Structure formats: C-alpha cells, structure tokens
C-alpha cells in the first residue's frame, strides 16, 4: 500500500439500515465487496469512532469514517540495491549478472520481493529498450528459486539482436542440476511438451497439448543418492528443467514443489532446488564475436554437493 489518497466521513442513510458494513461501503463508495472487506479488516473503517468487524450492521444516522489507500502498482519498478547480485560484464549494449536465489527478474503480480530490474535502476544502469517499463532489457528469465548467469540488454539494438537469438535458439544456455537417483540413460534428450498444471497454481507439467519443450542432459558425476547433470536447454519454458526431470522420476534435489524428497533436502540444508545457470554463450550484438560468461556455484549448492560426494 502507498499513502492514503481518499478519506471520507459520511452519515449512514436510511436505505442502508441493517446492512453489513462491508456491503454498505461497497454500495456507497463504488468499491468491490472484497475490497470493502479488506478495508475493514485492515482497520481503515470506523463507525462512530470505533473499529468494527466486517459483519457489523450499520444503522441510519451513525457516522462512517473510511480511509481508502491507493493500491500499489504490482508492476512498478522499485529501485532497490539487492545484496548478492554480481556484475560479471558491462558494456554499452549488455550487462551480464550473477543472479542470487530469491530474486525475481522483473516485477509481477503477487511478487513483493527484490528484482533484477529494480537493482539495475538503483545501481544507475540505463536500460533503454522497447516494451513494458518493468521488462525493459529483459530477453531471458531465471526462476526466483534459480541462481546463475543471465544477460540484460541496455540498448534497443542489443535487445533486438539478443531477443531474436533466444527466439531462434542460437544462445547456449548451460545449467547444472543435482537430481535424485541416476537417470537412465546417463545422457539423453527429453522432448516433452509443457503446459500449466491443470490442478495446481504456479506449477507446470508435461501435457499432450503443452508447448514444445526440449532438454538435453548428460551425467557429470554419479553418487549414491544423486547425480550431477549438465543440462542444455533448446527451448526456454517456465520450470522446464524442473518439470522434465520430475517427469523422469529424477526431480532436482530439494525441489519439493516437484516431488523431491524433503528428508534429503533437510539433510543437505537446502531450502530451494539444486539448479544453477552456470554458463551463457551468445554472439555479442555489437562486436559480432561469440562471448561466454560463467557463474560459480553459490555457497548453499556447493555445500550440498560436497555432502552428496562424501556420502557412502
């Protein structure tokens, strides 16, 4: 919420005698019934000077005081320096960062935490590309719960070139994933369409009518409880690696959202899926040369991997 923009004091008219206070507010002030109920529960409504519950019945002639704060725009870019974001490379056209876990790429409805876009604004980076203000320069995304290397474009030229590169799958996106068990075969391709999970919000699944999704993987290390995979994405669907590995019955370690073992996650001290964007390679939009950037494992993933390596 931002500062209050509207404060009204009215006498309850005869026509609303006996109405619940939330219904009375909705009818008098033109807000939805649910918004009126929110105002009551948040303490913005007083009847004859006293706070009331939303089920309170109003009577003619009583004084109704209502403060209606403006709702914050969920897409507003809030400048905020985010601890842990590391600048890997910066030039006139692009900025390459190492994104920590717990940071969204850009603002979205329902997300109130830090964002990459907000950090770049606060840090003084000038991003001048077309599109919605909260998504300027964004040509790729990493989940809030996924860390690693990503590129943001600073110029319209860079935006156009790299957006096309991602669209035409000429960008080399390499991830490392620690998954439960041992995928068979040790190296392979998962070609399975992905769509929104029909029974769960914020979740995706392999579905016959989903969007084409292709994941290539190979095993780097096989341990008693888990395998470290190198993963190359041909497509870039939301949660793609997590969904595909879960579909193989080898979910990313500690990915409780997609069926990982919570006991193993606790043993490793992990509070998010073991998945990291380690490398990103593409043709630089200005020089035309192939460039490649890398991100080391964050401390939590590195520590968990060492425990897995030491398990006998």
Automatic annotation (TrEMBL):
Q: Which Pfam families match?
A: PseudoU_synth_2, S4
Q: Which UniProt keywords apply?
A: Isomerase, RNA-binding
Q: Which residues form the RNA-binding S4 domain?
A: 19-76
The UniProt catalytic activity note for this protein reads:
a uridine in RNA = a pseudouridine in RNA
Q: Where on the tree of life does the source sit, at the highest rank?
A: Bacteria
Q: Does the keyword Membrane apply?
A: no
Known EC number: 5.4.99.-
Say which enzyme class the record assigns.
Answer: isomerase
Q: What role does it play?
A: Responsible for synthesis of pseudouridine from uracil.
Which family does the record claim for this protein?
Answer: Belongs to the pseudouridine synthase RluA family.
Q: What is this protein called?
A: Pseudouridine synthase
State the organism of origin.
Answer: Nocardioides bigeumensis
């Amino acid at each position: 919420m931002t500062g209050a923009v509207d404060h009204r004091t009215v006498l309850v008219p005869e026509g609303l005698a006996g109405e619940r206070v939330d219904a009375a507010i909705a009818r008098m002030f033109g807000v939805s019934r649910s918004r009126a109920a929110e105002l009551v529960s948040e303490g913005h409504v007083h009847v004859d000077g006293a706070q009331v519950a939303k089920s309170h019945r109003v009577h003619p002639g009583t004084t109704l005081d209502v403060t209606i704060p403006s709702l914050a725009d969920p897409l507003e870019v809030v400048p905020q320096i985010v601890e842990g974001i590391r600048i890997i490379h910066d030039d006139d056209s692009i900025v390459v960062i190492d994104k920590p876990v717990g940071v969204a790429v850009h603002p979205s409805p329902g997300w109130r935490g830090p964002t990459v876009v907000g950090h770049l604004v606060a840090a003084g980076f000038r991003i001048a590309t077309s599109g919605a203000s909260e998504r300027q320069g964004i040509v790729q995304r990493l989940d809030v719960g996924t860390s690693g290397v990503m590129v943001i474009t600073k110029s319209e030229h860079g935006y156009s070139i790299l957006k096309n590169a991602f669209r035409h799958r000429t960008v080399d996106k390499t991830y490392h994933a620690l998954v439960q068990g041992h995928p068979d075969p040790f190296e392979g391709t998962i070609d399975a369409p992905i769509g929104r999970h029909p029974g769960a919000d914020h979740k995706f699944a392999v579905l016959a009518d989903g969007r084409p999704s292709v994941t290539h993987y190979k095993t780097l290390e096989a341990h008693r409880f888990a395998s470290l995979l190198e993963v190359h994405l041909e497509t870039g669907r939301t949660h793609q690696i997590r969904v595909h590995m879960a579909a193989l019955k080898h979910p990313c370690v500690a990915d409780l959202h997609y069926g990982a073992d919570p006991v193993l996650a606790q043993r490793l001290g992990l509070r998010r899926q073991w998945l990291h964007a380690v490398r990103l390679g593409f043709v630089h939009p200005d020089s035309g040369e192939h460039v490649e950037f890398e991100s080391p494992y964050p401390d939590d993933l590195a520590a968990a991997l060492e425990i897995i390596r030491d398990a006998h």
